[in-house]
Amino acid sequence: MQIRLLPYLFALLTSFTAFAQQINVAVDHAPPYSIIEDSGEVHGLILDILTTIREQSAIDYQINAVPCPFSRCMRMLAQGEVDVMGGLIRTPKREKIMQFVDPAYMTLTSSFVFYARRDSDITVEQYTDLYTKRIAVMRGGAFYPRFDEDRELNKVPVFSERIAFDLLLKGRVDLVIAVEDTAEVAMEVLGQPIEKLKKVSYRHQQAIYGHMAMSNQFNDSPLAQKIRQAMARLAKEKQLDSVVAKYKLPPVSEHIQGVTLPHP
Which pTM was predicted? Predict the structure, then answer.
């Protein structure tokens, strides 16, 4: 009887081990860096990064993509319901609820810009002009400190950039804040009419860094530490540069100077 049970016990142990090595990755629809197809298929840069780490470092894990709106992805990561999310701007508030992985793998030398309807008479010449406007913002999103911390602005939280632009096109908000380098690509992918919009004069220029972040629970695991070490090594060895190049991003290896990386 005990001998007959051995194959079943082995199968159960194997199944448990495979489950323990699965990484749940939250992915929101944010073209061109992450896309959720109508079929439900998910692909994007954070999945490519994790696949490259697995292949180049011989770390055994399965990648389970979890499609979700941005705000839900963030909430699930903060609560430990998923293990990893990508493309996040590092802020002090976020550092309290999740763990960021160095180095950043996305770097945009872009501007935060504000879109208005082309047929409107809305103008924004300076920051203070924003106070009289209704501004659609991604729920849970981070932009730049002055804007993020300003409670006097009339911000209208939405679940996705697509909804933000839909509200703008329908005249329900006055402005949408977005990253200039990605907003028009996203609108094209979503089939939204960018020609009906205009960028106002005011903008905020800064380097925008996108990080992988881990849930606090997952970050304490041996697997997470192996991924951190592999990420640092592959960045130094320039093996991630070709991965991000497909998304027209600058090499990761150019932005690791001055960053304290974990020792392999």
Answer: 0.75
- The three-state secondary structure class of 101 is strand
Give me the numbers of helices (H) and strands (E) for the chain, helices first please: 10, 10
Domain 110-205 has CATH 1.10.10.10: no
Top CATH class, 21-107+208-257: alpha beta
Full pLDDT tens readout for the chain, 264 residues: 444 554 554 454 444 444 448 999 999 988 888 988 888 899 999 999 999 999 999 899 999 999 999 999 999 999 999 999 999 999 999 999 999 999 999 987 778 999 999 999 999 999 999 999 999 999 988 999 999 999 999 999 998 888 899 999 999 999 999 888 777 777 776 677 888 899 999 999 888 899 999 999 999 999 999 999 999 999 999 999 999 999 888 899 876 654 555 554
